[in-house]
């Protein structure tokens, strides 16, 4: 690795306000806000809107869309797949 071209990686706390959870990880992001973590140390904190604790895919609250109906409607409007115009 070339020296002095890589960003500094440091421990950072990401806090999901929607779910009320936080997790400590390494990141190049920095913040002026600080929070005291469970180990007694103080780390920069970054507030996020969505994390795995609140995202519908991970929580199982996501909706399933009727993609088959959309495909059928498209085929009715514009013809079957693979049909070539003469």
List the helices and strands and how they pair.
Blueprint: E1 10-16, E2 21-27, E3 34-36, E4 42-48, H1 56-59, H2 67-78
Parallel strand pairs: 1-4
Antiparallel strand pairs: 1-2, 3-4
Provide structural commentary.
The protein has helices at residues 56-59, 67-78; strands at residues 10-16, 21-27, 34-36, 42-48. It has one domain (10-78). With 86 residues, it is α+β, with helices and mostly antiparallel strands. It is elongated, with a radius of gyration of 23 Å. 2% of the residues are buried. It comes from Streptomyces scopuliridis.
The biggest beta sheet is recorded as:
4 strands, mixed
Spatially, the strands of the biggest sheet line up as 2-1-4-3
Tell me the Rg in angstroms: 23 Å
Q: Compute the number of structural domains.
A: 1
**DSSP, total strands:** 4
**Percent helix among the residues?**
10-25%
> Roughly what fraction of the amino acids lie in strands?
25-35%
DSSP helical segment count:
2
- Identify low-pLDDT runs: none
Q: What is the structural class?
A: alpha+beta
Short key terms for the protein model shown above:
elongated, Type B 50S ribosomal protein L31, single chain, 86 residues, alpha+beta, ribosomal protein, 2 helices, ribonucleoprotein, 4-stranded mixed β-sheet
């Amino acid at each position: 690795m070339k020296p002095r071209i890589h960003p500094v990686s440091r421990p950072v706390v990401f806090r999901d306000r929607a779910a009320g959870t936080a997790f400590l990880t390494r990141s190049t992001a920095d913040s002026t806000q600080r929070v005291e973590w469970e180990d007694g140390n103080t780390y920069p904190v970054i507030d996020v809107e969505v994390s795995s604790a609140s995202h519908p895919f991970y929580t199982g609250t996501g909706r399933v869309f009727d993609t088959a109906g959309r495909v059928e409607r498209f085929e009715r409007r514009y013809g079957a797949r693979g049909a070539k115009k003469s």
